[in-house]
Predict the 3D structure of the following.
Amino acid sequence: MNATVDTTVNPIYLVGGGKGGVGKSVVALALVDYLQRRGVKTVLVENDTSNPDVMRAVHDEIECASFDLDTAGGWIDVVNYCDAHRDAAVVVSTAARNQDGVTRYGATLGSTLAELGRRLVVFWVINRQRDSLELLRQFSETFPDAIMHVVRNGLFGAPERFVLYRDSNLRKAIEAKGRSLDFSELADRVADDLRSQRLSVRKAVETLPIGQRAELLRWRACYDAMFALVTGDA
Ligand SMILES: Nc1ncnc2c1ncn2[C@@H]1O[C@H](COP(=O)(O)OP(=O)(O)OP(=O)(O)O)[C@@H](O)[C@H]1O
Ligand SMILES: [Mg+2]
């Protein structure tokens, strides 16, 4: 098998962040919406087995599978799933509790990327605290070949308030290969609707009232610009 990475094949996108509540699920929902609207065939690998919120929101729009990344077997399944879906972009949604499993078994995926012929593109979602960065450091050691982007979640403040990250050596290392990105905050009440009604962004745009829809479209335009910077669509 050809062991070079084919840059024309859709990547495997992993949305991580280690910590609970930093916005991994919301970024994964935004990414699925972005790829779908660009006509990219997309499948979801959901790893939050206790709260599969991203899968619940998108399962009737795209093919989804759920695996347990806390086990070696779960990672084998992810690799095989990526192999079986070479024609699709794979969005891997992870949960905070997967961090140990990612560190322990993530190399299973890392070591097969070349053979799969696929790039691993990581969106690492952070808040303004130090542990977000510690976890990123651990993660980047597990996946040295991944293209990593850090996503400053606007829920936690304006980009200039992420001072620990701004002043870190880690940022320099990230920006040598990837980018630091800014993810816009969505109005609370719309974010709450997405969550409580288990809506994908597409469904929310179709079903929510005009005011909420206007806010969704504003937010969508922000993340379209963000993802376009790193998916070659800019
Ligand atoms: N940019 C944002 N704008 C508005 N609300 C947000 C944003 N990011 C996250 N939230 C809200 O913050 C909460 C946590 O977000 P989310 O569930 O995406 O985090 P998570 O990292 O997936 O958490 P977990 O580790 O529990 O899976 C949710 O209520 C979500 O709606
Ligand atoms: Mg989540």
Notes: The two ends are 32 Å apart (CA to CA).
